[in-house]
Amino acid sequence: MSILAILYQWLIPTAYAAPNYWLEICLIFSNPCLAGGDTTLYDAGVGMARFVATFVWGGCTVAILWGAVKIASSGGNEEGKTQGKNIIMTAMIGFALALAAQVIINFVDATFVL
User: Fold this and answer.
1) Cα 107 to Cα 102: distance, rounded to the nearest angstrom
2) Could you tell me which of 28, 29, 25, 21 has the C-alpha nearest to residue 46?
3) CB distance 51 to 57 below 8 Å
4) Which of 7, 11, 26, 83 is the most buried (most CB within 10 A)?
5) How confident is the model at residue 1 (pLDDT cuts 50, 70, 90)?
6) Helix, strand, or coil (residue 60)
7) Cβ-based neighbours of 80, under 8 Å, separated by 6 or more
8) Measured between alpha carbons, how far is 57 from 69 in angstroms, rounded to an integer?
């Protein structure tokens, strides 16, 4: 028996009452097809790209907030203002790239569905 199976049995003594974890993990990647056994590399790639895009959007949002805090806390210091503006500008470029990637993913997914 593998170590993972032993740990699974130890953590969840009644397997019949446990939910389908594979389905939940696949739904995180925004691709319910992954749980049905009808998975292709294309489906997995689209799901992973959408999952990563979620983190990029979140990272850009945090960067914009950080830049705003830098500007607000600069206290008239030009260097602090410049750093804050650069952070916000970089985050906006990240937003634009993430949006472009999402548009391309959606276009390819809608156009080349097998």
Assistant:
1) 8
2) 29
3) no
4) 26
5) low
6) helix
7) 70, 71, 73, 74
8) 19
Phi, psi of 76 (to 5 degrees): 90, -5
| Whole-number average pLDDT of the chain | 77
**Tokens linked to 70:** 């830098």
The SS3 assignment for 105 reads: helix
pTM strictly above 0.85 = no
DSSP assigned state of 79: H
Tokens of 90: 């970089």
Number of domains in the chain: 1
Distance CA 35, CA 77 (A): 54
| Helices 41-72 + 78-111 axis angle, to 10 | 160
Tell me, what amino acid is at 114?
Answer: L
